[in-house]
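Kindly go through one protein, given below as sequence and tokens. The question is how this chain folds according to its tokens.

***
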Amino acid sequence: MRGWLSWYKDLKKKNNDKKQNGDLKKNVSLEQQNSQNQSQKQAKSVFELSNDYKEIIYPNKATGEEFVVSYYMSLSESKIIEQFILPKLLEHGFEKLEDLPTILSIPGIEISDFSCREEHLLRGSVEIRIRGDEKKAAYLQANKNIGRNIAAPEVEFSVIGPKEAFVESYVQNINLLRKRLPIKELVIIEKTIGYYSKTKVGVAYIKGLANEENVNTVIQRLDNMEYDNIPDSSFIEQIITDQHNSPFPLALDTERPDRAASVLTEGKIVIISDGSPHVLIAPTTLIEFFSSFDDYLTNWMLASFFRVIRLFSVAFSIFITPIYVAALTYHYELIPGDLMGTLVASRQVVPLPPFFEALFLELVIELLREAGARLPTKVGQTIGIVGGIVIGTASVEAGLTSNVLLILIALAALASFTTPVYKIGNAIRVLRFPFLLFAELWGILGIVYCFAWLMAYTLNLTSLGRPFLEPLFPPRLTDFRDAIFRLPFRRQTRRPMFTRTKQPNKIIPKDLKKDIDE
């Protein structure tokens, strides 16, 4: 008898536990439903705060019920709604949302959960749902595309090549790439970055050419990005690069679709950001910042000559002012005898030492650059020309600077403009000041020390984990064929080694036989 009683008590206890667990689950599910309903009502009220948000109720002929059309007037195209969507829905009606693709001849109709309405509406889609049903809705693509038309490049202007440049539209930029590379192997992986901006970012590469490790590195860094607003690709470059505190850009940016398509065929990766007229190229090297795409549009001898001119101009821009300060401060024996009289005559009335004289003129040049860049185009050009002539002449006549230094700094400023990439030009502008300081401290020895420090620093720089100074270090003789000099296309038989491409060999042009005997 006692066994039966204990068994009955255990059974009763188990039933009570099951009942309590069932009640607990019901309460939890009710709380979840209430929280979902509250969040949906709260989201709905937030939508209605905006004046450009429209939510209109229409009768449904097919069922006698009502359906709701919601959209943003600033994001959705009103002609598509008024001419293609509403007339057919009001004329025929629909019994369920799944019937909309057969009624409306509009591609891209998606039926999804009602909780995803924020993502769809803020991308320009039109929401159609049955009134009272807040579980699912249909979303029709009716995006309003407002943007700048394709124009000629402004920064990387080309005399010979194509006159198309990237614009702020993500779709148009992909179109410019696919026009030049109409192959199925061109893969574009899209990401959404930015907590508030929800910026679309595309990672483009050629399947079978690009190294999977490089692609995975870019995608992983984009996935790990946490930032409020991504208005331009420059934000992405600063966040995903290997060294955040480097004055050198570690990802090459370009506004030319032909250059972007060309580097894709070399096994590199192109990052496209919505709202930015520039795309990023990675991995990259320091030598690439001094090569223009025009080098491939001219004869290889002319292209090599222009590259050497650019490299010499950059070296001249960095070193000429520090050498002037070092020679006049410590190393008079370096000055030729014929030039000594001219330097002495030009500095007779100058009260400042060479360092402060050079620093004053360098800062004046930087002020003129910034003023010319921030003012409107016509006014900026006038300020740059008139300001340079007036301030330069006035400073010489007032005895603040010498004629020789004024000429050298003007040539250095002119030489710094020869770089085809704007961001590397900014790095060169900054580098002159530490060299100038070390030249004042220790003369030529200070310049050598600063250069050694710069080389040691750049040796540690990497782009997506690849050496930034390649092919200089580590030395790669194969990549020297398109580095300081550009050899003919027949001699460029291999793709860059630092990209670790799967297909290192290029398809090179063959020698053509002459059809006419000469």
Summary: Confidence is low (pLDDT under 50) at residues 24-28.
